[in-house]
Amino acid sequence: MNQQSNHIPSKKKWLPIFVLTGLVLALFASEVTIRVSGVDWRYAEKNLFYQIEDVFNHVADPDPKLLYRLRPNSSYRYYWDHQNYSVSINSLGERGPERKSSKPANVYRIAVFGGSNVYGSHLNNNETWPARLEAELNRRFQSVRYEVWNFGTSAYVGTQMARLANEMIARIDPDLIIFALSNSGIMAFLSDTDIQSYFEHNPIFWNYLIDDSDDSIRPSQVKLWCLKHSHLYRYTLMVLAGIRNKNNLPLWHINRGFEQLNVQHIHELIEKHRSSIKFCYFVGPYNKPEPNPIASGSGYTIPRSYTEYFQIPDVPVLSIETTEAMPPEFSFVHPPSHVTPWYAERLTDLLKDTGLLAN
């Protein structure tokens, strides 16, 4: 009897070890299963945000602060909404005619960075507003020759604009840089490219998927290590983020913290170069929903509040507004070709009035 009673505590002593061992084995099996099946990446992939327009004129870039850029030396003809349009990118990755990187004498060089509004979605090269602006400036002012370089890239946000601008400052020596604000939030990925490699080399990308708070840009090193090495850990956190997501939007698209980086990177670039280059912001008249011919009745509105960008003194903010008498397409973020001459005329007036043109 005594031997039996003494044996019972012995089983209880080993019970926690059995439970812990079972838990470790279950976690290990789950880790292996997720790793082999790739379910974590498949879940991530469907929650990302993609740039899908004019993909033949865009190319992936390994820089995690760019992700993609305009494809140098590319030309392609597209068909959209019952009309054709052509896109040509020169050897320096700018949507415009072939130019020399060295600035000729008596030339005032303006570089414009932005998203698809600058790029000229669904327009021919000479119909984009930077191309119209170059023509308008040279029509009005003959004392110098103006060049307006169009570095607009579909879906670009501030981080990408600043990164590309920093590269082009060294290559083309601009006199004025215009940052055209039309997109906010996190970067898009170029569709049909090797996106997974960005996550493998930059584990913070996983955190952008699972943390939609302002602190998503500042994860701890321990968390980054776990995200990089544990498929189970990141998959579990993504699923939990999906449960919390009440907006039915892709998890990547609802991240709020990345906008802080956009503002930070633009400010850093301006402070670094403002002694030798003029800078300004441009905000267009994106105050009405734009019809989407692919999905009838749908549309979107560009955020109007960019006040965090405008904290640096002596950097002008140029803004053009529509009136109630003007047709609605003047307010589209992707305006048709008959609207862009109005952009050029208004911007020329604003650039002159703010002293941003050649002296």
CATH homology group of the largest domain: SGNH hydrolase
Count of DSSP strands = 11
Q: In which range does the helix fraction lie?
A: 25-40%
SSE string, helices as H and strands as E? HHEEEEEEHHEHEEHHHHHEEH
Structural class: alpha/beta
Count of DSSP-assigned helices: 11
CATH topology of the largest domain: Rossmann fold
Describe this structure in words.
The chain has 359 residues and is of the alpha/beta class. The chain has three domains: 36 residues; 76 residues, no CATH class; 211 residues, 3-Layer(aba) Sandwich (Rossmann fold). Helix content is 39%, strand content 14%. The chain is built from eleven helices and eleven strands. A five-stranded parallel sheet has the order 7-6-8-10-11, sandwiched between helices. Strands 1-9 form a two-stranded parallel ribbon. Strands 2-3 form a two-stranded antiparallel sheet. It starts with a helix and ends in a 6-residue tail after the last helix. About 5% of the residues have low confidence.
